Amino acid sequence: MGLLIPSSMAVQISKKRKFVADGVFFAELNDFLSRELSDEGYAGVQVRVTPNRTEIIIKATRTQDVLGDRGRRIRELTSVIQKRFNFAEGAVELYAQKVANRGLCAIAQAESLKYKLASGLAVRRACYGVIRFIMEAGAKGCQIDVSGKLRGQRAKGMKFRDGYMIKSGMAKQTYLDVAVRSVLLRQGIIGIKVTIMLPFDPMGRNGGIRIPQPDVVSILEPKEDIIPAAQDTRGQRA
């Protein structure tokens, strides 16, 4: 990811300050979009910097709601981001991208679980419903951590898991999709953490990962040896 500082603020800056400024920009942008587009199925943001402008790609489950009537909503968001981060006119462009598979998006499932708990559904029933939806979508495994005052005044934590889950190594950074949310209930705040083990998807059509898992080895069947036909040596001189 390149430099995310607006063009009007482009000055000589050290690498350390550049990475800090990029992180602050991305964190504030993600927080703003998650608050504004929570009802539209917000599922993350991607920032691409080109020589001419900065492109912000908003991932959501309901892209039509993000765009709004005749693109009105996306223009309002563009204007707010442009004024907040001091972008020049036309230097920032927003796009909406539909999530390929809603069941394999940890942010979308965390928001779904958040609304279920806020509506008064029992914790165990809500979590098992989300896990079933995730596994039916083709995930290799999933885990949901819920902590807080679930019942009574004493806080506790509960874990719900299903399938196969990697906990360490480079595959953890590649294959795991993690989302954390907080839901405010009458008895207090409950923390939610949704972890999804994404499947291997070489074509990239179902929302999985195109990179093969390093510890999964496919053993191919040996090919049959083709035995050449015996040559007729009759009539040949020794």
Word description of this protein:
The chain is α+β, with helices and mostly antiparallel strands and 238 residues long. It contains 6 helices and 7 strands. 31% of the residues lie in helices and 24% in strands. The protein starts with 14 loop residues before the first helix and ends in a 41-residue tail after the last strand.
Task: Decide which structural class fits the backbone.
Answer: alpha+beta
Largest sheet: 4 strands, antiparallel
Looking at the chains present, what oligomeric state does this protein adopt?
single chain
Secondary-structure element string:
HEEHHEHHEEHEE
Separate helix tally: 6
* Total count of strands: 7
User: How helical, in percent, are the residues?
Assistant: 25-40%
Topology record:
Elements: H1 15-36, E1 42-49, E2 54-60, H2 63-67, H3 72-84, E3 92-98, H4 106-118, H5 123-136, E4 141-148, E5 156-163, H6 170-175, E6 176-185, E7 188-197
Parallel strand pairs: 2-3
Antiparallel strand pairs: 1-2, 4-5, 4-7, 6-7
